[in-house]
Amino acid sequence: MSRSLNLAVIPGDGIGTEVVTEGLKVLDAVLTGTDVKVGSTTYDLGARRWHATGETLPDSVLEELRGHNAILLGAVGDPDVPSGVLERGLLLRLRFELDHYVNLRPSRLFPGVTTPLANPGEIDFVVVREGTEGPYVGNGGALRVGTPHEVANEVSVNTAFGVERVVRDAFARAQARPRRKLTYVHKHNVLVHAGHLWRRTVERVGQEFPEVAVDYLHVDAATIFFVTDPGRFDVIVTDNLFGDILTDLAAAITGGIGLAASGNVNPDRTAPSMFEPVHGSAPDIAGQGVADPTATVLSVSLLLDHLGLTEQAARITDAVAADLGERGTSTRRTADIGDALAARVTA
Ligand SMILES: NC(=O)c1ccc[n+]([C@@H]2O[C@H](COP(=O)([O-])OP(=O)(O)OC[C@H]3O[C@@H](n4cnc5c(N)ncnc54)[C@H](O)[C@@H]3O)[C@@H](O)[C@H]2O)c1
Ligand SMILES: CC(C)[C@H](C(=O)O)[C@@H](O)C(=O)O
Ligand SMILES: [Mg+2]
Predict the structure, then answer these.
(1) Helices 334-346 and 15-31, axial angle in degrees (round to 10)
(2) CB 295 less than 6 A from any atom of ligand 1
(3) In this predicted structure, what is the pLDDT of residue 331?
(4) Is the dihedral of CA 97, 261, 194, 142 positive or negative?
(5) Where does this protein chiefly localize (predicted)?
(6) What mean pLDDT is reported for the chain?
(7) Based on the domain organization, do 80 and 174 belong to the same domain?
């Protein structure tokens, strides 16, 4: 039976447009010859639109996005737009409005990839980062701004509902993996309100998953083990901000930010999920054609997997593994990597 996919594409800013072009190339290639047809609509959102119209994410566009099977996003953020305008008004608004409560960030050290770690061992874990709560919700404010007596608050919001649903998702993912291990990361020795809610929730939900071994790390200690013993991790569940920080570190130990993929997943499928590289718009290299599109290509693989196209998703991951294995120290341009991956998935 033939199937059509209706994708929304938001290239965004900086290298976002460059890497998304390559991601779509590989998507087209992997679906060539199958009975899956892809239609995509590209949305002009980001710095250009903000400069032209003052808009970040009009309600009408948000409603249109809801009608798609999935969203592919490049990156947002621009040095000429005040920090936070696009990040909050576009990217986070999408994650919140579309209820992307599971921010899925897998990390794997592919054979042949250079890592800064002396003894990396085998690295293959996934961070389940909470995506709709924590200090990201915008529950803050400032008084006496710019004076010596300024007060600035950014309150972390953790709800029983929000913590339970992401913890349950992480347990289910751990249960489905061979090692069946879940590490939850927080800072409950200091953040006693949020931390204890997370701890109690993990203990309670864990009773439904007796085969999953659970351990806990304070977030500061977790950073040590990311460097000294990353092989100990299988599934990690943590809050929005800790997850943000840990996943850049995870990228760094597995070959760099240019390889790190993510999915902003709505597991209940009440709205489309959104797939994007972990990295940002990289203004320092934008326009030079040197950004690594691999993170975006791997995000396309996560997208296909989410839509049930597991064979095509695996074909992309295998192509990336093979490509990375042969890359060595060669420095290829963005489009060359995209072309090489497209050729591999077509074969
Ligand atoms: N999901 C997103 O859209 C997202 C994520 C992170 C940052 N941002 C935004 O992006 C802008 C820049 O942020 P930043 O500099 O902190 O983070 P960044 O991820 O854009 O860049 C950090 C460093 O990594 C390098 N890098 C990033 N992606 C790369 C790739 N694919 N290939 C090779 N090198 C790559 C950059 O050149 C830079 O040196 C800011 O506006 C920030 O808010 C957006
Ligand atoms: C740009 C920013 C809002 C975003 C985040 O903090 O989630 C980014 O750092 C990421 O990791 O996707
Ligand atoms: Mg980040």
Answers:
(1) 10
(2) yes
(3) 82
(4) negative
(5) cytoplasm
(6) 97
(7) no
Q: Clarify whether residues 248 and 136 are in a common domain.
A: yes
| Amino acid identity at 193 | H
Which domain range does residue 12 map to?
A: 1-101+261-347
Q: Give the pLDDT of residue 340.
A: 97
> Any binding-site annotation on 248?
yes
Q: Is the ipTM of this complex over 0.95?
A: yes
Ligand 2 centre distance from Cα of residue 88 (Å): 9
Tell which of 254, 284, 309 closes a domain. 254
pLDDT at 264: 98
Distance CA 105, CA 115 (A): 18
Residue 227 forms part of a structural domain: yes
Determine the average pLDDT of the residues in 57-72. Answer: 98
Q: Probe ligand 1: pick from 104, 254, 281, 320, max atoms within 8 Å of CB?
A: 281
What's the full length of the chain, in residues?
347
Q: Tokens 């305008």 label which residue?
A: 85
Mean pLDDT of 94-119: 97
Residues 145, 62, single domain; the answer is no
And the tokens for 146? 């710019």
Q: What is the distance between the alpha carbons of residues 244 and 85, in angstroms, rounded to a whole number?
A: 18
Answering whether pTM is above 0.90, one says yes
Residues with CB under 6 A from ligand 2: 87, 91-92, 244, 278, 280
3-class secondary-structure state, position 186: strand
